[in-house]
TrEMBL record:
Keywords: RNA-binding. The keyword Transport does not apply. It comes from Coccomyxa subellipsoidea (strain C-169). Residues 9-86 form the DRBM domain. One of its GO terms (molecular function) is RNA binding. PROSITE patterns: DS_RBD. Residues 173-207 are annotated as: Disordered. It holds the Pfam family dsrm. The lineage of its organism: Eukaryota, Viridiplantae, Chlorophyta, core chlorophytes, Trebouxiophyceae. This is DRBM domain-containing protein.
Length: 207
């Protein structure tokens, strides 16, 4: 049975990470044993190059064997996750969700709401600025949004004047990674609170 990373199978964690980094891991499974073992499935996994402000790695290949196709895929994915953790781009699962991107970055609970709003606006401005520079359409937003609060006031615009295309793209990638990290932190907090409410509702009423 494949080990789980933060209650998810390794392949799922790997694919979610690459939704943020960009690129698609390629799994190729073949019948046949690695000699002299009994018949098994062999999985060849290729993970694309990753470059982030915190480091990265070039395209890397992993091989794993198991008695089922799915188990072979998860085993190869687990090897790749261990490799990625060693590069400091993922946190190993210690009864907590794996967060791709900025290891050690503050969680939502540690970040004022105004900073979250500023990050949102920074992501929008960078996307529009990059598109306006004539280098294609604006990159898609991560989909995370906070409700508008009229009392919060306007946030300070991000100064992007004088930045090159590459600098704009790097700033955008950083903002997207932070945005994705915030989304996952908010999702974990929502799950935790829902579990607490469910536990409270299911408790027998006191007489």
């Amino acid at each position: 049975m494949a080990h789980r990373w933060a209650n998810k199978y390794p392949k799922s964690v790997l694919m979610e990470a690459y939704q943020i980094w960009g690129g698609t891991p390629v799994f190729t499974v073949e019948d046949g044993p690695p000699p002299p073992a009994s018949p098994k499935f062999t999985c060849y996994l290729t993970i694309p190059t990753v470059h982030t402000p915190n480091g990265g790695f070039e395209e890397t290949r992993f091989t794993a064997w198991a008695r089922s196709k799915k188990a072979a895929e998860h085993s190869a994915a687990e090897k790749s996750l261990e490799f990625i953790v060693s590069r400091g781009l993922l946190q190993a699962p210690n009864n907590a969700a794996v967060v791709p991107g900025l290891v050690g970055s503050p969680g939502v609970g540690d970040m004022p709401l105004e900073e979250v709003r500023l990050l949102q606006q920074r992501l929008r401005i960078l996307s529009v600025q990059l598109a306006a520079a004539g280098h294609g359409e604006a990159p898609a937003s991560s989909g995370f949004a906070l409700p508008e609060d009229e009392e919060a006031g306007a946030v300070t615009p991000v100064d992007v004047d004088g930045l090159s295309e590459e600098q704009l793209r790097q700033e955008l990638r950083q903002a997207q990674e932070q945005n994705a990290s915030l989304r996952q932190a908010l999702s974990r907090e929502h799950t935790r609170r829902k579990a607490a409410v469910d536990a409270l509702m299911s408790s027998p009423a006191r007489q």
